[in-house]
From TrEMBL:
Keyword tRNA processing: yes
Protein name in UniProt: Elongator complex protein 5
Family that this chain belongs to: Belongs to the ELP5 family.
Signal peptide start-end: none
A biological-process GO annotation: tRNA wobble uridine modification
UniProt entry tagged with the keyword Nucleus: yes
Species annotation: Mycena alexandri
Keywords: Cytoplasm, Nucleus, tRNA processing
Functional pathway: tRNA modification; 5-methoxycarbonylmethyl-2-thiouridine-tRNA biosynthesis
Biased composition, class Acidic residues, residue ranges: 320-336
């Protein structure tokens, strides 16, 4: 089941959304806000387009102009964010920050930002109703390795946005298609190191033959799930690929327009080449030749003699005329 459609009681309390220059994930934030069944609060520090999301239970906080050194009325964003969590109405709450790198830049310290987000995570977990802390981060970001550790949150849903062009690149350059078209072990062994090289995706999008921009309508999301909402100590990590569409929401990869060609390719049957074709002589035997061949006696000493299965193995040897076989000791002249 997609993380969009999970029942509220089963949702992870921490959702880490990772975007890149090659593929933005802001569309996912918009859908989370529009589909929020409970209260949702958005603190917008980077993408102004998210401020246009409207809803009866959605409250947006515009911090785009709250920049230290450029605003005479600058206010530490930590006070406003913490106050919003503490004073949020009772019930389920989706608390979203876009983006944590901008927040870290305003605070001026990565360690201080991490400590503040840890306190925020504790406040979210302390709420009586299932709530989520949703953090949007660019890639690469120095905060990503810290926030993805179990120390910050034992349970985690990590969503990474990828351009569909990346899967097309893997299919053409590495002859590897996404599961189930390829074995999962083979696919992830190639996909992970390539996707972690951020410049690889950027080259596909912004290179000489690139699209010039990430797909704003459809994208591929890598979903990593660790633990569960009930606080299980399950240490296993589930990793899957899903499609996402601006109009349809989560969908199978096969329904992504740019990837349909990967599923529609007809794999041709292997052609068996007859080695006897196009030669200047005949390598085939007629029926009479095959019968004559079968009647030729084999030059074995035991030919035609039944072998006793219980008997021990033996070596049958026919001496040649040139063999010098006698019972004399070949070393009798040695004084041993």
């Amino acid at each position: 089941m997609s993380f969009f459609r999970e029942p509220r009681r089963r949702q992870q309390p921490f959702l880490l959304l990772q975007s890149s220059i090659a593929q933005s994930g802001t569309g996912i934030i918009r859908q989370l806000l529009e589909d929020a069944s409970g209260h949702a609060a958005l603190f917008c520090l980077l993408h102004s387009s998210l401020l246009s999301v409207q809803g009866p239970h959605v409250k947006t906080h515009d911090l785009l102009d709250n920049v230290p050194g450029y605003n005479d009325n600058y206010e530490d964003p930590r006070k406003r964010i913490q106050s919003a969590v503490e004073n949020a109405p009772a019930g389920p709450l989706d608390f979203i920050i876009d983006s944590i790198d901008t927040l870290s830049s305003d605070i001026g310290s990565i360690s201080s930002t991490y400590e503040f987000l840890s306190e925020l995570m504790s406040l979210i977990r302390a709420r009586s109703s299932p709530s989520r802390l949703i953090l949007h981060a660019p890639s690469p970001s120095p905060l990503l390795p810290l926030l993805s550790q179990p120390r910050f949150s034992p349970s985690l849903t990590h969503v990474i946005a990828h351009p569909p062009a990346l899967l097309i690149h893997l299919s053409t350059e590495y002859l590897t298609l996404p599961p189930p078209l390829s074995p999962e072990a083979k696919f992830w062994g190639i996909f992970l190191p390539v996707s972690e090289r951020v410049h690889e995706s950027e080259r596909l999008i912004f290179g000489p033959d690139g699209e010039g921009t990430g797909d704003t309508e459809e994208l591929v999301i890598e979903v990593i799930v660790r633990g569960d909402a009930e606080g299980s100590r399950r240490r296993g990590v589930d990793r899957t690929l899903q499609g996402w569409s601006l109009t349809r929401g989560p969908c199978p990869l096969a329904e992504i327009t740019a990837l349909k060609s990967l599923w529609s390719r007809n794999i041709a049957e292997p052609v068996v080449v007859d080695p006897t074709q196009n030669v200047s002589f005949n390598l085939n035997l007629t029926e009479s030749q095959q019968n004559s061949r079968a009647q030729v006696p084999l030059p074995y000493a035991h030919e035609g003699k039944p072998m006793d299965k219980a008997a021990s193995a033996a070596i049958f040897y026919d001496p040649d005329s040139a063999d010098d076989i006698d019972d004399d000791d070949p070393d009798e002249d040695l004084d041993i």
